[in-house]
Amino acid sequence: MHNVWMTPPTFLRHAVLLACALTAEVAAQSYAPDYFRQFQASTAMDMVNRLPGFTFDGGNAGRGVAGNVLINGKRPAAKNDALGDVLGRIPTAAVERIEVINGGANGIDMLGYPTVANLLLKQMDLVSMSTTASTSILPDGSLTPSLEGNYSLKRGDQNITALLSRSRSPDMAQGLGTRTTVFTGPTPAAQVRVAGAGVAENTAVKLGYGQDLLDGQLTWNGALLPWTYQSQASFDAASHSLTSNDNAGHTREQGLTYSRDLAHGASIDLKALYRSSETSAESATITGSDTSRAYTNTSATEQVLGGQVSWQPADGVVVRGGLERAVNTNETSASYQANAWVQESRIEGQLSSAWQVDSSLSAEAGLKVAHSSLTVGADQPEAKAHVYPKPRLRLSLSPLPSLQLRLRVEREVNQLNFGDAAAYFDPANKAIRDDYPDLAPAKTWLCEGAIEYKFWERGTAMLSYTQSHISDAVDRMPVRTVTNTYDVAGNIGDASADSVTGLLNLPTDNLALPQGLLKLSTTWRSSSITDPVTLATRRLSGETPLSWRVEFSQDLPQQRTNWGISVDNGWSNDSWQVAERDTSSGSGWARAFVNYKPLPNLMVTLELNNLAGRTITYDRMHYAADRLAGGVDFVEHNITRTQPFAMLRVRRDW
């Protein structure tokens, strides 16, 4: 019989080959379109997802948080456009190459990330169009069709882009469930069967135009985004009740950016943005012959003006300075409270410098100073202004080409929730606030260390630890008077938080699964704060102690197919109010997909979502007075079981 065990020399040979692969120098950091043909990439997003050792982060355009992909060295200007959507509209034919930059190089703004991808577009005339038709397929066989069309023209120094889409999507957080309430007193427990369903409809019209002007590049973008959401939930108990929600709104945006190179290695970037939104929400509850109604109407605007100057006095050294002014206004009227008008004015200046000392060492130091003030009520005096310094220091060291060590120390200042601010400064409750300071945003000192190791061609292992010290944390707090205790949002003191994140991207080419990639990620979190009601130590509200995700994908070029699966552990978190403790959790989410390209310009995708049928629970423990006095008067347990669903999508490039 043949001996299947490896002889010692064979084992040693494999061990040596593995060690050499693990310590090999990282592959070239510039990737031409030819590299991505093996993955059948159709868009820039497909290319970014296949970059060796790179993990895409879309950021949050609506909150002004940049993603880790640049286009021609710049971040996209529109706040209503997700970075992944922008990249998904760029055909591979328009891409010259993609540069993966570690630690900063050639004057690139790293946007706070250790690694960014810079997408460089070709200087050529190009016309591209695409249409995408898709539909969700629900368990009862109903369909929710969507359609999107994209057009892009590049001719000379002019660029024109247009998008028109209409989508309809089900609310998969709703379904069949029960609500069980157990009372402390003699009242018997009550159980209610709940059946809910909802659907959202979205329309998008987006336009963009760019051209050279005065030796620079001028870009304009505009968007109109109307939407609706409708839902119904029935409650079968001793008396049947029906609750319906009818929400609608729209967002308008216009943005203007101008970039120009100046003399002596300097450049200037200017931007202007105006954004407005209107939202109306109406709800009705019918119980027997009784009907109750409620409404909320909100209008908001955002105006931003800013500029930044970058200067590269020497190779590997970049100095940046800038100034930005933002005015955010929010006005809310509701059936359950008085009208609320809140305006925040903020001016922020920044100065930073980045040094690429050599191929193994880079550093960045900077300081932002923000001057912020709130005005609540058009006829109310302006609240006290605050000045918030936000220093930062980032270091990156690569003792080996495949190994990177990172350190980050930074101070962050959160943005106040306008709803919390309006309620806190409510003139009707002003008397109870006399002994309390103004509501202030939370401020956090972050210290983060990370080690990242790259192996083979696409393998990455990363481990990071973050320690946070939070002052003026915002949560629910009691405001006590002689006759009443009020539950409001407020500053409840200092907190500490720790997190450990691990990431592994493991190519499976050597594991009998060619062109496959296994991704494992997990984050552990711990925090501590003094509860303002009981004065005991607890976690921060809304913190999930542990989250993990497993993904596998494989490209099969001969079959013109790629497929993948993913599963996560869902979430579980607690939140505390003066007289209530709430626990929310959702079981894991499993997804599988397959992409098939019968033609080079045609992609058919089938997705199977929520394969395990997510279960969502929401528990309330309610106290008769408050959590300090104790005395639970009832416990409510809500459970909803959601159903799997499929999605079919066809994309055609023209």
Automatic annotation (TrEMBL):
Record's keyword annotation contains Acyltransferase: no
SUPFAM superfamilies: Porins
Alphabetized UniProt keyword annotations: Receptor, Signal
Domain of life: Bacteria
UniProt-listed Gene3D superfamilies: TonB-dependent receptor, plug domain (2.170.130.10)
Signal sequence residues: 1-32
Protein name: TonB-dependent receptor
Organism: Duganella margarita
Taxonomic lineage from the root: Bacteria, Pseudomonadati, Pseudomonadota, Betaproteobacteria, Burkholderiales
